[in-house]
Amino acid sequence: MAALNRAAVAAAPAPILLVEDKDSLREMLRHALERQGHTVVEARDQPEAVRLLHDHKLGLVLSDLRLPEGDGFGVLRASKEFDPDLPVIVMTAYGSIEDAVCAMKEGAMDFLAKPVDPDHLTLLVARGLERRRLVTENLLMREELAMRRGGPRIIGSDAGLAKVFTALQRAARTDTTVLIEGESGTGKELFARSLHASSNRADGPFVAINCAAIPETLLELELFGYEKGAFTGALGRKLGKFEIAHRGTLFLDEIGDLPLTLQAKILRALEERCFERLGGTATVQVDVRLVAATNVGLKAAVAARRFREDLYFRLSVFPITVPPLRERTGDIETLAEAFVGRFCLDLKKKRLVFSPEAMERLKAYRWPGNVRELQNCIERSVILADGDTILSRHLNLSFAETPLPEAPAGPWEQIDLSGTLPEAGRRVLNEVERRKIEQALRETDNNKGRACELLGIPYKVLMSKIKEHRIS
Question: Is residue 283 within 8 Å of 265, Cβ to Cβ?
């Protein structure tokens, strides 16, 4: 997946966002900054400032705390949510220094008391931009170091991808647990490997295991190992993935499929950094950084009691969401060209080019399988192309032109609202009760006692409702 390179970051100086509602003061501050060679974009209130945050790659934010719509605290929070490393300087009236102190506690770099001293303004801005430069250079050096160590090259220039990369680099400075969320095919393992290569554990092992690909009966053995004689056929000691990843990174892919029986043991290994091998009595101490990935909503799994809440909170200390390819359409051409180069080299073919029509079709397609699907498509196209050009027919995307089925009617269109309000209300309530009870019985394999726990009702009430709704 694109790499953010030094030349791209060191292009034209990033502008300063100036947020001030008083026209005369805003004009004075803009002139003072422009005399120092800075480019300035201006906003009068919080909504306008938030829009400019998304429209420009900024170097620094200078905002008044008192605004006609919203306030400087809102600008500060929006800035930090968009880019945690973006320096923010707040301005406040002389008698409101306490507000400025509160803003600094929320992440502001510094504050300016009004009336603003232009020399003081210039000093703080220069300090903020220098801090920004150092953070950016540190990220770039970490990326270059990871590349030298054999870390993966992440391809793309999309703003959402750059945000993910920045979050990865920030997480790499620590040993905190990271949860990478994203659809299948978005490259979650690639990002996990990039995180490992940029961390202080880069010289240690990176051990990956797919929790959905291994039967439940074998998964515990793979993760924690076993002692000789632990079961029939255990002819010797086997080290588990936790032990093999000592002083490195353990990557648990598709952790949402981790069986409940293993979740408690994973939680203990994370919190206490120790475990026992199957059939063993000795405690094994490990120093492992855990990175987990999932393509399902773990919050929903927690609500459905398929995933332990305590383990979810332990895993999601630092969540990172990888955007799907359909939200990174600007990267499709870059990725396609990179894949063509790789596969032409692998297949010892002359470098191929895309016809304009083929590239347009690639860009127009939704890519439900994300980057993995694009990679497979390009590999197939390189094999099929018999000239020096990849044509539309080589892409095999004819199914992309099949019209999508009509969207089903929304739930409200399917509700019978005839009759009086009480009558309609009773019908809706009865339907909700019936569906909820049937769902609980399915999830518990018809165990009515367990269903009562899920529904939060007494056993007698459940039996009465089953009879009332004629649930078999």
Answer: no
